[in-house]
Design a protein that fits this description.
Blueprint lengths: L1 H21 L15 E8 L3 H13 L5 E4 L1 H4 L3 H9 L3 E4 L13 H20 L4 E4 L12 H14 L2 E5 L8 H6 L17 H13 L2 E6 L2 E2 L8 E2 H12 L3 E3 L2 H8 L3
Parallel strand pairs: 1-2, 1-6, 1-9, 2-3, 4-5, 7-8
The structure holds zinc ion.
Zinc ion binds next to loops.
Length: about 260
């Protein structure tokens, strides 16, 4: 994870200059709503039934909405539950059909057609047309030829060409508004409980966001009474992280809502 984070920091440095040349006006931050000093989005990957059963209701109890990035494979058998999640105002995002973690065997066009758009068409039929948001499975972006920068740029542009408004990785620091808007096809995020079922990493990440007036995106996978597998978060730790958000002057909103808020007017 560390090397991936370094890679994304490097990409920010190498693509920042390019992006600035295409943005005519300097970016102006929009104050966070209600006097908040930072923002946080809560995202849940892979379309696991424990998320619709456990995470969505807990967010609703707190008056919050999250992002649920579903794979078509996982959501097919649990469609009524996900329809209820969407109806409650949570964002439903695209996490591909089969969650491939190595894209080297795929031609870019075929991958977008078979893994991304096949899923999006099914989602649009199931939920009605949705604003399009994507999360890169395994935070992997090695689609097509070239170095990491060329691959990520190509992937992002192909998604943008299909009407996607954002794409989220799973690594990197909290974002300034300027960075997030410019790199909205490579949003950074943190999976704070992936290595360890402990709220400490999430709390440090939230405080980093607060310190810089930034936007933090957190990523969760399996939720369970107790951690029984790598990447799983216990309900106790999940609640402790949500409590930490509630105790801080952070605006908690889904990714699409934060992007709409920071979009240059
Ligand atoms: Zn995933």
């Amino acid at each position: 994870m560390v090397s991936r984070r370094k890679l994304l920091s490097g990409l920010a440095a190498t693509t920042g200059g390019l992006a600035l040349r295409t943005e005519a006006r300097p970016f102006v931050d929009t104050p966070w709503p209600n006097g908040a000093r930072g923002a946080v989005s809560l995202s849940y990957d892979d379309g696991l039934s424990n998320q619709s059963l456990l995470a969505a209701p807990e967010l609703a109890r707190r008056g919050w909405r999250g992002d649920f990035f579903l794979t078509l494979d996982n959501m097919r058998d649990a469609f009524p539950a996900w329809k209820a999640v969407a109806a409650a105002g949570h964002e439903i995002g695209n996490h591909t059909t089969h969650h491939r973690c190595d894209l080297r065997p795929f031609a870019p066009g075929a991958y977008i057609r078979d893994e991304v758009m096949a899923t999006q068409v099914a989602f649009d039929q199931a939920f009605g047309p949705l604003p399009r948001h994507f999360a890169y499975p395994c935070s992997v972006t090695n689609l097509g030829r070239g170095g990491p920068n060329a691959e990520l740029h190509r992937f992002g542009e192909l998604l943008r060409g299909q009407g996607f408004l954002s794409a989220r990785t799973s690594d990197g620091p909290p974002m300034t508004q300027s960075y997030a808007w410019t790199h909205r096809m490579a949003l950074t995020a943190d999976a704070p409980t992936y290595e360890k079922d402990d709220p400490a990493e999430a709390i440090a990440y939230l405080d980093e966001a607060l310190k810089g007036g930034r936007w933090a995106i957190l990523v969760f996978h399996t939720l369970a009474e107790a951690r029984t597998e790598s990447g799983a978060t216990s309900l106790k730790v999940h609640s402790a992280i949500l409590d930490a958000i509630a105790a801080r002057p952070l605006w908690c909103a889904p990714i699409g809502e934060v992007l709409a808020h920071i979009r240059p007017k």
